[in-house]
Amino acid sequence: MASLPMIPELLRQLFREPATNVFPAKYLPPSVTEFLKKVGRGEAAIHPPVALPPAFRGKITYDPEGCIGCNLCAKVCPAHAIEPVPETKRIRIYVSQCIFCSQCTDICPKGSLRMTEEFLLADEDRYSDNLIVE
Ligand code: SF4
Ligand code: SF4
């Protein structure tokens, strides 16, 4: 239970505007959303606030050309983020499920999978084009 001296502050906070922006990005101020659109068009770049460490594990990339459809990656994935596509003998990766462990990249015999430095992956739709790799 709140102590007595805190009660006036608690009441004040009830009627104050939030101090932070609401997430997700659609609530950001136009200055930020316009900037992000420029980033999407390749006209601006976001620099990470700190240098990424060596061997950083960000969004996975996949080279379907080299893939032989062995499905080893899907078998080792602890997050069930990789789905075999039998019709094409390729795979589909659901980035929203990925836990960035890199086990698939380690086991792939063809070097078709690679972790990148991309880490800005927030999205409202877990099945958006940005979060499906195939
Ligand atoms: S990095 Fe790990 S979790 Fe992500 S797809 Fe590969 S094996 Fe699955
Ligand atoms: S382990 Fe490599 S070669 Fe085998 S299915 Fe996965 S991506 Fe393709």
UniProtKB/TrEMBL annotation:
Its EC number is 1.6.5.3. Residues 58-87, 89-118 form the 4Fe-4S ferredoxin-type domain. GO terms for cellular component: membrane. It holds the Pfam family Fer4_10. It is an enzyme of class 1 (oxidoreductase). Keywords: 4Fe-4S, Cell membrane, Iron, Iron-sulfur, Membrane, Metal-binding, NAD, Oxidoreductase, Quinone, Repeat, Translocase, Ubiquinone. GO terms for molecular function: 4 iron, 4 sulfur cluster binding; metal ion binding; oxidoreductase activity, acting on NAD(P)H; quinone binding. SUPFAM superfamilies: 4Fe-4S ferredoxins. NCBIfam families: PRK08348.1. This is Nadh-ubiquinone oxidoreductase chain i.
